[in-house]
Design goal:
The chain is α/β, with parallel strands linked by helices. It is built from ten helices and ten strands. The chain has a domain of 164 residues: Rossmann fold (3-Layer(aba) Sandwich), CATH 3.40.50.300. It starts with 6 loop residues before the first strand and ends with a helix. The model has no long low-confidence stretch (mean pLDDT 90).
């Protein structure tokens, strides 16, 4: 009998509310095991980004458990969560447009205690050679694809155990999307666990081993990604197949 790897990230019955009226999550339960690429798919407004914010400590759950490597996260500030080994690449990239590429990357490593980060910089420039050519260029002058690469590189500077990616393909040309997903695969092969939120369901399912489907704040399906690709309901709702 094959042993499953341990759960790195666990959500159990998580509810989240914006303000007093908008119930964004309604009892979400899911897990991401060490070494996996797990995808979360769903339409706009389903609550995908809310899950990412809740895990990263940017939004406190109303109730339920969020656990990373056995430690409960609710109540922890985001910088402490990042120091534990969890990095978020947010929707819309959110780079610092008036800082250079090097300064953006340096910001990603602010929680690191090591003074010599040359290995981390070399790793980022190996993954994203274009950033090595743009070291002194301001982030705001980069193309959309280059900004996404910079956002991912910034997150990797924290040496995460779990990398969370929120809509990494949004607004990018297909050839750039191909490159981004190649890098995601490579990062995972290097030992980083990946939790991927992506509206492009077909790409997300191809890139992941398991996936969850989120609708209006609730998980409505969970299975191996290949099985979800064959599911008629998923095909009709998310893959454009009828």
């Amino acid at each position: 009998m094959t042993m499953k790897p341990p759960a790195m990230l666990e959500l159990d019955g998580v509810h989240a509310v914006y303000g007093k009226k908008i119930r964004a999550l309604k009892g979400v339960s899911l897990e991401v095991r060490a070494g996996e690429v797990v995808a979360l798919i769903g339409n706009n407004g389903a609550g995908k980004t809310t899950i990412m914010k809740t895990v990263a400590g940017l939004l406190q759950p109303e109730k339920g458990v969020v656990r990373f490597q056995g430690r409960d996260l609710p109540g922890m500030p985001p910088d402490q969560i990042m120091r534990m080994g969890l990095s978020l690449v947010p929707e819309g990239r959110r780079i610092f447009p008036r800082l250079t590429v090097m300064e953006n990357l340096e910001m990603g490593a602010y929680s690191r205690r090591e003074k010599d980060l040359s290995r981390e910089y070399d790793h980022v420039f190996h993954l994203f050679p274009v950033l090595g050519k743009r070291r002194q260029q301001f982030g705001g002058t980069l193309s959309g694809g280059e900004q996404q690469m910079l956002a991912m590189g910034r997150a990797l500077m924290a040496a995460p155990k779990l990398l969370m990616l929120d809509e990494p393909s949004m607004g990018l040309a297909p050839v750039v999307v191909d490159k981004i997903f190649e890098i995601i695969e490579l990062i995972n092969k290097e030992g980083v666990t990946v939790f991927l939120v992506e509206q492009n369901a077909k790409r997300a399912l191809r890139a992941s081993s398991r996936a969850y489907v989120l609708e209006t704040g609730e998980i409505v399906a969970a299975a191996d990604s290949a099985a979800l690709m064959r599911d008629p309901a998923v095909q009709k709702a998310y893959l454009g197949l009828h």
